[in-house]
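Appendix B. Raw example, untouched.
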Amino acid sequence: MNATQEEARELLAEIREVQARTRRALGRGAGPYYMMIWGAVWFLGYLGSQFLSFETAGLVWTALVIPGMIASALVGGRVTLRFRGATYDARIGLFWLALLAHAALIILMAGIAEEPVLMSYVVALFAMLGYVVMGLWLWTPLAWVGLSVTAIGTVSYLLMPGYFCLIMALLGGGTLFLSGFYVLRAWR
């Protein structure tokens, strides 16, 4: 089948429209909000870890993670109601809970909790593994965000462990938040 130039232009225009609609759907979905919520949690939590005692930083993280989980559940519920076809949201939430449980067990069993910077690094690795998996399953840019923050965390942990938490606040939390903000604004 040979298409005329006009037919080829029409097909390309249709493809571009599908791409634009897909971007708008992603921009209206929950992903950008999750990234912004957890980017803010990471920013504040890692700042606390850099400048506060280990015990106080743990309280700060708890005070941030619980509202972050509630906000994520509310956003997920809102999006599921808006997009009736979003049947995988419960499985995504369960995936994150399973990942969190496994991370906690590994940290506990390996004795990593005794070393605050190492524990922070391992938690970041698990979280970014989640982003990579979500990217492979659902939306490729999430995988790139996960890989980028993993690289930032690894380099800073190995080369500047005294500033790891500050770097993760600025570049880790900042990357998550700004990526979500960009998608939310640019892809509508």
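End of appendix B.
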